[in-house]
Specification:
The chain is of the alpha+beta class. 56% of the residues lie in helices and 12% in strands. Helix 4 runs antiparallel to helix 5. The longest helix is centred in the middle third of the chain and has 18 residues. The radius of gyration is 25 Å and the shape is elongated.
C-alpha cells in the first residue's frame, strides 16, 4: 500500500474526510475507490458511496480477499444507515469470517457490531446480546470502543435497564472524546439527551403526567396493575396478558383503566370502543359479550364488575391501576417510532422491522402523510419516508421484549 493510501486511511480513521479525499480523490485504483466510497458515505452521499465500493470490490484481485471483505463491510454499514434492511446480511457474515481468518480483528469486530446493530434495530435483542458477548474489547481503538458502548447502551435501553445504559454511555463519551471524532461525540451526547426526554405518559386516577425511561423501569418493576398502551398488554410485575391481537378488548381495558377507581358508563364504552354515537340494543348486546371476554381474559390480574352506570375494573393483588401510553397519543405511533430516528426509511424496511405486511405499512404511511406527520422523498423503489422535525422519543413502541416479557 503506497504512502497516499496509508495517509488517506489514517485521515478517515480520525474523521478527517476532506483530508482523505484530497489524497485519493483523483485516483481510480481499487484501494483509492474504496477509501473514496467510505469518505462519501460519511459525507452523506450514500448512492455514490455504494457505487464506489462496488467498483472497488470488483476490481480487487483474487488474492485480495481481505480488501474485498472490507468493501462488503462498508457497503453493509451504508445499507444499515440507509435502512436497506433487505440487504443480504449473509454477505456481511461471510466477510466477517474472511477478516477473522486473515487476522484483521478490528474490521471483523466492526462487522460484528454492524450485525448486532441490525438485530437491535429490528428488536431481536437475544441475538444482539449473544453476539456482543463474543467480542474481545482489548484490541478495540477508542472510536470502535465508543461504538461498542453505544450498542451496549442501546440494548440496555430496549431492555429498560437504565442504569446499565447510563454507565455504557459514560464509557462511550470517554472513548469518543479520546478518539477526537466530533460526529461520534455528538452521537453519544444525543443518546444521553434521549434518556432525559419524556418517553411515555402515565394516566392514573384521572391525572396525567410524563415519564422518563427510568420512571417507566421503576413502574414496570412495581406491583401496580398497568394497562400498557405501548405494547397493548395488561401487566402486573412478571404477569402479562397480551391483547395485541384483540383491539376491542384492549380498548375496553384502557377505558376502564383510565377511569379507575371509578366506573365507565355504558354509552362511553360504546362510543370509544365501537364508535357508536347512537347505541341500539345490538350494540349493548355486543358490549356485554366483549366485556365477558375481557373478564375471562383478565381473570388472573383483575375483576370487572357491573355497576349501575356501566362497568368498573378491580385489580387483584395490586393497590393501583394506571395506563401507560406513548408520549404522543396518535394513530400509527409504532410507525412513527421508527421514523423518529431521523433516518429515511423505505416502506419495505418498515414492514420488515415491524413484522407487518407492506400493504399495512403503506396504508399507515399514507394516513400519516395526509395528516402532515411524515413526508416522503423520491418515487417508486427509491421512495423513502421520514418525519419532519421535531420527532418524539419512541423506545417503548419499538419491537423487542421488556422486563417480564
Amino acid at each position: 500500500m503506497d504512502s497516499l493510501i496509508t495517509a488517506a486511511a489514517r485521515a478517515l480513521a480520525t474523521g478527517d474526510l476532506l483530508g482523505a479525499l484530497k489524497r485519493v480523490g483523483l485516483r481510480n485504483d481499487p484501494p483509492a475507490l474504496a477509501l473514496r466510497g467510505i469518505a462519501m458515505a460519511q459525507l452523506g452521499d450514500l448512492p455514490k458511496a455504494k457505487e464506489l465500493l462496488r467498483k472497488a470490490a470488483g476490481a480487487f484481485g483474487p488474492k485480495e480477499a481481505v480488501s474485498r471483505a472490507r468493501c462488503v463491510v462498508a457497503e453493509a454499514e451504508i445499507a444499515l444507515v440507509s435502512r436497506d434492511l433487505g440487504w443480504p446480511v449473509q454477505r456481511l457474515a461471510a466477510a466477517r469470517a474472511t477478516l477473522e481468518t486473515h487476522g484483521d480483528r478490528l474490521n471483523a469486530a466492526h462487522a460484528r457490531h454492524l450485525e448486532i446493530r441490525l438485530w437491535l434495530l429490528i428488536g431481536r435483542l437475544d441475538e444482539a446480546e449473544r453476539e456482543i458477548a463474543k467480542l474481545d474489547l482489548v484490541p478495540l481503538p477508542p472510536a470502535l470502543r465508543a461504538a461498542h458502548e453505544l450498542v451496549v447502551a442501546g440494548i440496555a435501553i430496549r431492555r429498560l435497564k437504565i442504569k446499565t445504559a447510563r454507565d455504557a454511555l459514560t464509557r462511550a463519551a470517554r472513548a469518543a472524546r479520546i478518539s477526537g471524532i466530533a460526529a461520534l461525540v455528538a452521537e453519544v451526547e444525543s443518546a444521553v439527551e434521549a434518556l432525559q426526554t419524556p418517553a411515555a405518559r402515565l394516566v392514573a386516577s384521572g391525572k396525567e403526567r410524563a415519564l422518563r425511561l427510568d420512571d417507566v423501569e421503576a413502574l414496570l418493576a412495581s406491583s401496580t396493575l398497568i394497562v400498557d398502551a405501548c405494547r397493548h398488554v395488561v401487566r402486573r410485575g412478571g404477569a402479562i396478558v397480551s391483547l395485541a391481537t384483540r383491539p376491542v378488548l384492549f380498548a375496553l381495558a384502557r377505558c376502564l383503566g383510565e377511569a379507575w377507581p371509578g366506573d365507565v358508563p355504558r354509552d362511553v364504552l360504546l362510543a370509544r370502543t365501537f364508535g357508536a354515537r347512537h347505541a341500539d340494543e345490538s350494540h349493548r348486546a355486543r358490549l356485554r359479550v366483549e366485556i365477558g371476554r375481557l373478564r375471562a381474559t383478565l381473570k388472573p390480574l383483575a375483576e370487572i364488575s357491573a355497576t349501575e352506570r356501566g362497568f368498573a375494573l378491580t385489580p387483584k393483588r395490586a393497590k393501583k391501576v394506571v395506563v401507560l401510553g406513548p408520549p404522543v397519543d396518535t394513530e400509527h405511533a409504532d410507525v412513527l417510532a421508527f421514523l423518529a430516528d431521523g433516518e429515511a426509511w423505505s416502506s419495505s424496511a418498515l414492514a420488515l422491522a415491524l413484522g407487518a405486511s407492506s400493504r399495512t405499512v403503506q396504508r399507515a404511511l399514507d394516513a400519516l402523510a395526509a395528516a402532515n406527520k411524515v413526508q416522503s422523498l423520491g418515487r417508486g423503489r427509491a421512495q423513502r419516508w421520514l418525519t419532519p422535525p421535531p420527532a418524539f422519543p419512541t423506545v417503548l413502541l419499538l419491537p423487542g421484549p421488556l422486563p417480564g416479557d
